[in-house]
Every structure is written in C-alpha cells, then in structure tokens.
C-alpha cells in the first residue's frame, strides 16, 4: 500500500516519497520492559503466535528477572520493589502466588489507572519516536533494535522518568485519586 505524505517540501522534479504506515493487519510485537534507576534491567519479547498469560509472565519474565537479581545483587540483602499495572495477567492467582514467594516486594497499582506506569511516561515514547517509519523484517531484528534503543537511553532520562512518575503519584494522592483532572495541574 502506498502512503503518500500530505505535506512535504520538495522540488517539482523530485518524486513524492512513500512513507511506510502501519496497517491494522500488520503484525505486532509485544515487549515487557523492567528498569530501575540503574537503567534497563530486563527486556522480554513475546514470541510470534504466543499469548501473554499469567504462566508465560511468571515463567518467561518474572522468573528470569528474579534470577538476574539473585545472581547479581544478592537479593536477600536488598529490597527489590516491582511495579506493574493491574492487567489480568498481573493480578492472576498464579502471578500473585509467585510474587508472594519471590524476592520482589510489589508496589500496588491503583485501580482504574492504566496510564501511570513509568514506562508510559517516557521510555515507550522514546521507543515510538525512534521506531517511527522503520521497517522491521523479523523478530530478531525487532528485539535487537528495541534493545539497542533502550540501552542508549541516558541514565539521566531514566532518573527524570522515575522522578516524574513519583511526582505524578504524589499529585494523585494529594487530589484523593482524582486522576481525571491531571491535565489541570
């Protein structure tokens, strides 16, 4: 499908460029990203054709993340707080049981607040900007590209993201959870 741009500066003798556009039927790739003030800690790409459910989340995301912390940080000596939203796979019995017996201390996510995850405040925006117009041939290329972009995010940007997130949570708490008026800040 050709997707001609609506407005562009070009010489009349130049051809109109074709800009790639995502279509509804285009394949999507799901990434799960965990980060801390030290940087990106874990990236998981859901394989093509698989569905993310509680068992997959525990087996392919939480268990390897926990193993990483146990090996690198001696997790029994430090507190590791984990945050995720209230999607079904995060609140499923299997996930909750794993978290209760894990090295993680879970920071509770308020109900009906889908867009206050720290990744939504900055990191995914950076990813979207960097990937705009990029044609990706396969899953390996997608993983390599996403991993490289996330690894190149400067630590100051990650700190800024975490500070913004804390400020947002404080604002919501101060306004008795009235998140609907966040635009009036």
TrEMBL record:
Pfam families: Transposase_1
Protein name: Mariner Mos1 transposase
Phylogenetic placement of the source organism: Eukaryota, Metamonada, Preaxostyla, Oxymonadida, Streblomastigidae
Entry's Gene Ontology molecular function annotations: nucleic acid binding
PANTHER family xref list: MARINER MOS1 TRANSPOSASE-LIKE PROTEIN
């Amino acid at each position: 499908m050709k997707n001609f741009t609506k407005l562009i500066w070009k010489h009349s003798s130049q051809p109109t460029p074709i800009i790639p556009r995502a279509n509804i039927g285009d394949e999507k790739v799901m990434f799960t990203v965990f980060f801390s003030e030290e940087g990106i800690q874990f990236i998981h790409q859901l394989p093509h054709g698989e569905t993310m459910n509680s068992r997959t989340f525990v087996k392919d995301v939480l268990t390897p993340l926990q193993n990483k912390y146990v090996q690198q940080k001696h997790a029994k000596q430090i507190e590791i707080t984990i945050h995720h939203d209230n999607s079904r796979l995060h609140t499923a019995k299997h996930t909750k049981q794993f978290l209760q017996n894990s090295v993680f201390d879970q920071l509770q996510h308020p109900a009906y607040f889908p867009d206050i995850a720290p990744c939504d405040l900055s990191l995914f925006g950076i990813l979207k900007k960097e990937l705009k117009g990029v044609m990706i041939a396969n899953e390996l290329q997608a993983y390599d590209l996403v991993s490289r972009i996330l690894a190149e995010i400067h630590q100051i940007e990650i700190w800024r993201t975490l500070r913004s997130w804390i400020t947002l949570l404080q604002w919501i708490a101060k306004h008795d959870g009235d998140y609907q008026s966040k635009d009036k800040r």
